[in-house]
Amino acid sequence: QNSTLVARCAFEQAQRRRKLLTVVHKSNILTVSDGLFRESCFSVAREFPDVTVEEQITEAFICSMIRDPSPYDVIVTPNMFGDFLSEALAALVGGL
After folding, report:
1. Residues 81, 25: contact at Cβ < 8 Å?
2. Residue 55 forms beta bridges with which residues?
3. For 86, how many CA atoms within 13 A lie in the half-sphere containing its CB?
4. On the CB side of 11, how many CA atoms lie within 13 Å of its CA?
5. Distance CA 23, CA 15 (A)
6. Residue 40 CB contacts under 8 Å (≥ 6 apart), including other chains
7. Of 3, 28, 48, 75, which sits 20 to 30 A from 10 (CA to CA)?
8. Among 14, 18, 24, which Cα is nearest to 48's?
9. What angle do CA 92, 15, 31 make, to 5 degrees?
């Protein structure tokens, strides 16, 4: 249920912006926890047909974001990866 609330908040934000949401997860390894998060995001996506949804595995996303952040707008990820991502990407601009 909490994953659904987080996903809905991200979709609402995306709807007010460029209508692009990227779901970042590691469900290839964390099949239960991140798998549930991923499923929740794509379930909520049906309520927002005007929002384009993309997904990326965490490590691939970090590499892509460092090379070129311009394709991304709203990013939603489980809490643990959100912490890693904010720290890693903040380093690009000098820290949080």
Report:
1. yes
2. 23
3. 9
4. 21
5. 15
6. 3, 4, 6, 7
7. 28
8. 14
9. 65
* Per-residue pLDDT tens listing for the chain (96 residues): 899 999 999 999 999 999 999 999 998 888 898 899 999 999 999 999 999 999 999 999 999 998 999 999 999 999 888 888 888 888 888 876
Q: Global pTM?
A: 0.91
Residues in a beta bridge with 25: 57
Joined together, the tokens standing for residue 83 give 């912490």
Burial of 16 (0-12, 13-18, 19+ CB in 10 A): exposed
Q: Which two tokens stand for residue 59?
A: 């490590």
Both tokens of 80, joined, read 């643990």
18 close to 52: Cβ distance less than 8 angstroms: no
Q: Using the structure block, give the residue that is written with the tokens 């929002």.
A: 51
